[in-house]
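note to self — DONT lose this again. spent like an hour looking for the file last time. sequence + predicted structure for the chain T wanted, 780 res
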Amino acid sequence: MIAMTTTTAVLAGAVLALLIAGAVCALYIGLRARAEARNLTEESSRSGALLSTGPAQAAIVRGDGRIELPDRIVDWLGLAASPRYLTDLGTVTEGLPQDDLDALSAAVLAAQRAGKPFRMSVVARGASRRLSIVGVRAPEAALAPGGVVLWFSDQTDSEDEIVRLTAEAQELTEAFEGLAGLIEAAPMPMWYRDRNLALAMVNTAYVEAVEATDARTAIDRGLELVEGSGMGGPLANAAIARDTGEPQMAAVPATINGARRMLRVHDIPLATGGVAGFAVDVDELEQARGGMKRFGEAQRAMLDRLSAGVAQFGADRSLVFCNQPFRRIFGLREEWLRDRPEFDRVLERMREAKRLPEVRDFPSWKAERRTWFLTPEAGQEEHWHLPSGTHLRVVPQPLPDGGLVVVFEDRTEQVQLASARDTLLRVRTATFDNLYEALGVFAADGRLQIWNQKFRSLWGFDEELLASHPRVDALAKAAAAKLENPQRATMIGDLVRSATVDRLNRGGRVVFADGRHFEFAAVPLPDGNALFTMLDVTAGRRVERALLDRNEALEEADRVKTQFVANMSYELRTPLTSIKGFAEMLHGGYAGAISEAGTGYAEAILQSVDRLSALVDDVLDLTQEDSARGRGQVDLELLAREAVEAIAGDVQAKGLALAVDVLGSAGRVKGDPERLRQSVEHLLRHAVAGTPRGGRVLLHIDGTDTQARIVVSDDGPGMSAAEVDKAFDRFANHGIARDGERALGLGLPLAKRFVEAHGGTIALVSEPGQGTLVTIELPR
């Protein structure tokens, strides 16, 4: 009994232990399942939270068209309630447009049947959102067969960002293209180096400068713009710019298009690690600077030569330049000006020298002048009246750099001239009104502008008519009644128009009805007007008539005298011929032998007859009207030889030296050979007669293309001024030449008459003790 009890107790204990172990195991499994359930719940909550807050939301479309949508997708689609079927995603005013809904239905159907995924973008009308839909076939284990998972994501902000970025990218692209075009079109070489300082881009100007065929060739061959290679050459500044991040500049030589140039090379570091560079040709800049400097020097030299004073102040208001007239006008010393005094000090020094206008408040006056620097517009000017009586025109001109140029023009002379001009105008007006002549000034349009009292009273014009400044035609019409011939009044208008329009001086003469004679004249004035004058010449006309009558009487008397002399000359030829014939018979012994003294007397008679015959011939030549008869080509060298042969006897008798100098340029002239020969012969006889024994006479002939010149000179005692004045006067007291004296005969007047008949001129030059020279000039 005890044994069963023990066995039973053991079995009971074992069962109890098993129950306890099973309970513990069940508890363990329950606790573990509970933990896993809790983890799954948390993970589901976390996934749900992530899914609900994620950028994409999932919707399930079942095989029968039913759809399960999260609330966020409903909000994105702008629907008032969650739809049950796919076809309910779009209404007339909400959800998807019908076209998008049809496309979505077709894509879902394709995914259900063929498992084809799709992606599309739609716009929700109600919410105005752009949604991206990605559709894939749902796993059959998770969902009902034929289901499709639609992932909706709101792409509105992304699309806006894409649009913005696209526009920004377009702007950057256009800016880059513009910048690239600008660089390409730049006239200066430009380039870009990479981090290793190797050329990566060059423009056309660079290619032309290094004489490469194209940009790629220049980059591949590493053609550098300037001389040198390596880090010590053109890459030195680029390396410094890359390493320091600071722009670098250097002036380096280069050979461009075969010419040696100086370039200013700039290297600029870029954020990418590369270096951009460009080169500026500074040769022209230096030349321009040199030209500007020379221009400034020339300008200052020119300003020194001006009569106006010029002073230039810099932006700091110090005197940087002044010319000589400025120093002279204001009495400023060169040593003081070298310190570049300030504007106020210059004014104060001018005031000390009493070269400024007298003002009560000088500080205020000086402050007003300082505003010249601040006044932007030009065209200001002032007039200063100095205590010394000097009048200055002051013109300040502000400069763009803040400086100032002041021009001081001395107008003292102009002011004095203006005052004198006013006085002259008053004097002219008084003189104008009191002249004996009648004067009127007509404008360019023919209207009377100014007149004097003589003009009004002479024509009898009314003051009212003249005050209206009538035209010249109206005046001529009113003046016609005053003239002897009224039609002559039109001449007034013709003269005025000729002076105003044609700018010609013209005159005329009219007779008034009362018998008075007036001379008209119209003179163009510098201002375009015309001055019309009238002078009473009645008395002069009468004197002129009397003189004309007397002149006609004198001319008639001269003709009678000339005819008388000609007749007497012809009458003298008959007794002279008889005397010469009988004297020759006596000298030849036809009347018997005569003594030696008788022979001498006969020779003396013959010489006197020859001289008297020559004198008669000269008188006849003077009385003849035509001094140049037959005309032809005259050889001046032959003419000179004939004239010399005619006087050879006289030259030999006096023991003179006769020199003849005929140049090859003498040539020929057109004229009367006999008259021209006589002219030269008369000059030679005049020279021989006035030259003492042992003297010298010269005949010189030369010429040009337009005229010939004949010169006869001697070394005789010369002639007095009175003798020179009447040498060519045929009515002077002509006598016979004596030995050692020069008497005036008819030779010189005859020579003058013959030469002038040929269109030539004759001139005599002589002084006592200096000989005599006579020159004939004949046109070809």
